[in-house]
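User: For a teaching handout, I'd like to show students what a predicted protein-ligand complex looks like in token form. I'll give you the sequence and the SMILES for NAP. Please answer with just the structure.
Assistant: Understood, here is the input followed by the structure.
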Amino acid sequence: MAETDSRKTIVLTGASRGIGHATVKRFSREGWRVITCSRQAFAEDCPWPAGPEDHIKVDLADQEDVGIAVSEIRHRLEAHGGQLNALVNNAGISPKLKTGSRMDSIETPMHVWRDVFQVNFFAPIMLARGLFKELAAAKGSIVNVTSIAGTRVHPFAGTAYATSKAALGSLTREMAHDFGPHGIRVNAIAPGEIDTAILSPGTDKIVETIPLRRLGATSEVADIIYFLCSGQSSYVTGSEIHINGGQHV
Ligand SMILES: NC(=O)c1ccc[n+]([C@@H]2O[C@H](COP(=O)([O-])OP(=O)(O)OC[C@H]3O[C@@H](n4cnc5c(N)ncnc54)[C@H](OP(=O)(O)O)[C@@H]3O)[C@@H](O)[C@H]2O)c1
């Protein structure tokens, strides 16, 4: 039976491309209302039927803008009972040198380091705290998107990126501890080499050594995000799931 009046709602950052885009499609297919966040305004030619009322234009690198976005999201949720079933912190940046090489811990300019931490680490906790009341009201679920680079030096991912993802993994554990008593589950997913625009040339060489011998598809990541936001994972919190074809072994 259709349940259009009791649709579950997810707020998803970095929805315009890659893993985020596949996640929008996955949750929409399951009948969720998806509130998307990215720097771009809603594209008028986008075939997605939900329309601009479910899109928030926000630059997560700008703290003030994140605060404004939180108020706007809360306002939009109010009209639907003030409940939020899931927050997925997916947006991330991984700056490279002009040559395409990784930015190491000796050369990375401090302003780059700060921007990376603002987008990859501070924005997720700002959103989670800002939407805490709505998440608690729905006994919702938070998924933070980390990376394999958070636990080992990666040939292309830079130091600022790697350390921001390690910090986000640690934050996931802290949040699971603190948010759990309020009924909110907090987990992370750590993708390996997934076929999106964030990948660097040369990734095909890494893939040769991965046990499953192929890139991951964005839909395979979206499936795990969906699982972590669904009732099927109701006793899972504080975990970080590797989605990497065995790359971490
Ligand atoms: N692909 C992989 O192999 C891989 C591996 C490990 C981890 N990850 C992680 O998975 C997540 C998604 O990766 P992806 O490969 O799908 O990335 P992507 O294709 O580069 O997309 C990144 C998304 O983040 C948004 N974004 C970037 N900066 C933003 C900002 N300042 N404010 C708001 N939105 C911003 C972008 O939207 P706009 O440009 O429209 O603003 C875009 O939707 C990231 O956290 C990434 O670190 C990916």
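For the handout, you might add this sentence: The chain has one domain: 9-243.
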